[in-house]
């Protein structure tokens, strides 16, 4: 069931929309901003579709723009180059490039800006992960009791059974 009786969508509806989307972006070389846009529609071109892109760092948009010249015939593919600047890489940060395909104008069944498809890819920037220093953590107390080990810290206490491993 995609919608409840009160027309509230179930999560499955969003999954179906994603699976059935007719515009697909495939990565070629994300570092260079090269992607392949595939028009999976049977009869329409992408000239009435707008594809915007967003470069995010840990989910925060740091750059955005749009893909130009989307005159892609039905069933065809076309390479596009996304013009973005390499960000100042920060440690412990993941970068993603998201593409959102939406209507340029309103149509009978949807308003202008209605999202038809989206794709998101991790940009393979290598960022050095900072290791946590042992002295940054509070000290742990480990007690060897008769049947359990008791490990405690500033705000927790846990017991582990010696024979069963049960917490």
UniProtKB/TrEMBL annotation:
Enzyme class: hydrolase
EC number: 3.2.1.23
GO molecular function per UniProt: beta-galactosidase activity
Biological process according to GO: lactose catabolic process
Catalysed conversion reaction: Hydrolysis of terminal non-reducing beta-D-galactose residues in beta-D-galactosides
InterPro entries in UniProt: Bact_Beta-galactosidase, Beta-gal/glucu_dom_sf, Ig-like_fold, LacZ_4
Record domain Beta-galactosidase: where: 36-124
A single GO cellular-component term on record: beta-galactosidase complex
Keywords: Glycosidase, Hydrolase
Gene3D superfamilies: Immunoglobulins
Pfam families in alphabetical order: LacZ_4
Protein name as annotated: beta-galactosidase
